[in-house]
Amino acid sequence: MDMVLKGLRDKEVFVYIDDILIATETKERHFEVLKLVLEALRAANLKFKPQKCIFLCDRVAFLGHEVTRSGVRVDPSKIERIQQYPRPTCVAEMRAFLGLCGYYRKLVFGFSKIAQPLFELTKAKAPWKWEETQENAFAKLKECLKSAPVLSQPDVEAARSGERPYAIYTDAS
């Protein structure tokens, strides 16, 4: 799919394996880009199921995220799944929980530090001891994901004017 849509991938067409997301500013532009995508798929003799397509919507679930005009956030159905996740009772369950949460680590400031007590339980030959430290980390991780921010591109002009400044945090690890 990457090769088929190579010339179209920019700020409006996003591809992951066989999932395609088209995000445009106007309905007219959306139809233009959609036509180009469909023509590229037809030229490559690729087919799609119309019943699996969603057209002209304000928000869409894409790869576990909800994408809207204002940005990207955790898909609400995933937040609910994380909130309902029972306390792990073994290493396999802990790894499953950390895997689910880890997918959204970029949305949780200090994810590794918060989850560290939980990761300790997954180390080889580590005894399974669920204590207050693990309970607090488990609850905090759930809470952080429930209130995770919406990721959006900064408004450079508003930042330059001082109207809405922003800071960039990096992780050198």
Could you describe the 3D structure shown?
By secondary structure, the protein is of the alpha+beta class. Among the domains are: 13-56, no CATH class; 76-146, 2-Layer Sandwich (Alpha-Beta Plaits). 39% of the residues lie in helices and 12% in strands. Strands 3-4-5 form a three-stranded antiparallel sheet. Its EC number is 2.7.7.49.
SSE map:
Elements: E1 13-16, E2 19-22, H1 27-43, E3 59-62, E4 65-68, E5 71-74, H2 76-83, H3 91-102, H4 111-120, H5 132-146, H6 156-160
Helix pairs in contact: 2-5, 3-4, 4-5
Brief characterization of the structure:
With 173 residues, the protein is of the alpha+beta class. The chain has helices at 27-43, 76-83, 91-102, 111-120, 132-146, 156-160, and strands at residues 13-16, 19-22, 59-62, 65-68, 71-74. Helix 2 packs antiparallel against helix 5 and helix 3 packs antiparallel against helix 4.
